[in-house]
Amino acid sequence: MTTWNNFNDADDPSFALIPKGSLVKVRMTIKPGGYNDVNQGWMHGWATRGDTGSVYLNGEFVVLEGKYARRKLWSLIGLSSAKGTSTWGQMGRSFIKGALNSAFGVHPDDMGAAAQAARCIESFGDLDGLVFLGKVDWDKDGLGEDKAVIKMPVMPDHPQYKELMGTTATPPAARGAHAAAVPAHVAHAAQAASSASPVAGRPAWAQ
Question: Over the chain, what is the mean pLDDT?
């Protein structure tokens, strides 16, 4: 009998969540949902429309370095709420602003021309692949189980920012070049439907 017939001595799987408050360097990718709204400037199918009518970016965050390297976390970035309130969209805008500050080493109080330019994007495609420092929190999934999420980017004035983030990226001189080149998988999603079908299993907190 081999190790691939008898599994009694195999290591027990460890599914422990990354502890709350952990600071991790992550790469954010956006899963295209195929939803567009020309009036809002949501183009190229990056946004997702949920089953309640709320719109969000479906973000995946891969830890790049340290003890939790290669672990993945998932969070939704709010764009608009079906309930008619702007709170969720404001939270989403604040998250994106923080992620850009963290990625490019921009102090949140810096209102210079370069800092303001770093906080501007041509499309949500500019956020796909963004690397920044994030703080881990816990939330509930659709089954009520705990899951680790990224809700708060860490700013450059944090004492551990330089140590954990290392060299920050330089804001692109012309974001239009990025936006013009729509990824193939995004184009496919946009062509599949001008607005995405409702996505089931959306957590209650994001409705």
Answer: 83
